[in-house]
Amino acid sequence: MRATRVMHVRHSIHLLLVLCTAAGASAVLAQTAGSEPARVAAHAPALPVDKDMGAWLKRMQEAPRRRAYAGTYVVSSSAGALSSARIWHVCDGSQQMERIEALTGAPRSTFRRNDEVLTFRADEKTVVAEKREAPGLFPNRQIVGDKVIAEFYTLQAAGSERVAGHDADVVQLVPRDALRYGYRVWSEKKTGLVVKLQTIDGAGRVLEQSAFSELQLNAPVKMDQLARMMAGTSGYRVEKAEVVTTTAGAEGWSIRNAVPGFLPTTCLKRQISPGQAGPGMLQWVFSDGLASVSLFVEGFDPQRHRREGISALGATQSLTKHLADRSEGDWWLTVVGEVPAQTLQAFAQGLERRK
């Protein structure tokens, strides 16, 4: 279950980190950071969605592609989990590179060059190599489908604040239904770079927060230096993740009733562990342009798959379910997303095996 959740988080709003517990720290952050913007947003006028939503999203999406920066960021949740990392990012034309160094939890460094990702696990002396089509990591998150977003979210101005020493505009994305969470976003005034983000539930509570605690724009980050570090795999065992792009239809799956606003984006077939035989695990990803939901389907194993139900870690909800199929055998479904539990249930109820 934990491994499945981590795979989803790598494609979601937040950073490539395994959260560790730090009692009370994130609650303090959420209460302090969340109080004032919420009061401002409650009285802020809605922006003209058809005109400003697309422009704002495009500016936020393009910001990390135009400059180099370095900083320390922190991810916290209402459950008391807290993690931090150091990030270096540089771009050269169409090529982007970054390094993420975990400061909490197990020691690991992640390097990304466009869609090529290497994760160095120092304690295990291993490097995991994989391809990722579209990195969905804050602050480099790729946002698409502004028309879909405008249909399911309202954009509200919420004033301005300083974050990590930089002036930032604050906006709030308010969901139009109960199938998704809201977001509060701080973007640096001059560049549009996202410097802070909160995920908000229907009662206005901050479920999860990502923010730079220190940020240097136009930092002297060198692409060739990061490339040399990325190539330094000597002394490590390199494991290549076996991932194949496919379609749900080709694998025999479909959604009976579409969940409003969520469109299929990618479908991958991966081995659960290196060198494993068998069909492996299917990952079918849906997104409304901001939130994403991953459906993981694998063969049912009574030794590993014993507990059905719903659990939560900050904004991330997960649902597990045993799918019985008399003709082909049983399956195990895990649905993970930064969405309310009822959204996961809608996906689980709609998934069906094609005859």
Distance between the termini: 28 Å
CATH topological fold name of the largest domain: outer membrane lipoprotein receptor (LolB), chain A
**Overall tally of structural domains:** 2
Low-pLDDT stretches are 1-51, 134-144
Strand runs, count: 22
Task: Walk me through the structure.
This protein has two domains: 2-230, Clam (outer membrane lipoprotein receptor (LolB), chain A); 242-353, 2-Layer Sandwich (Phosphorylase Kinase, domain 1), CATH 3.30.200. Strands 1, 2, 3, 4, 5, 6, 7, 8, 9, 10, 11, 12 and 13 form a 13-stranded mixed beta sheet that branches. A seven-stranded antiparallel beta sheet has the order 14-16-17-18-21-20-19, with helices on both faces. Strands 15-22 form a two-stranded antiparallel sheet. It has 355 residues and is of the alpha+beta class. It is built from six helices and 22 strands. Residues 1-51 and 134-144 have low confidence and may be disordered. Strand 6 and strand 7 (126-131) form a beta hairpin. The longest helix is centred in the first third of the chain and has 18 residues, at 25-42. 18% of the residues lie in helices and 43% in strands. Helix 3 (49-62) crosses helix 4 (146-152). It is globular and about 60 Å long.
Give a brief outline of the structure:
With 355 residues, the chain is of the alpha+beta class. The protein contains six helices and 22 strands.
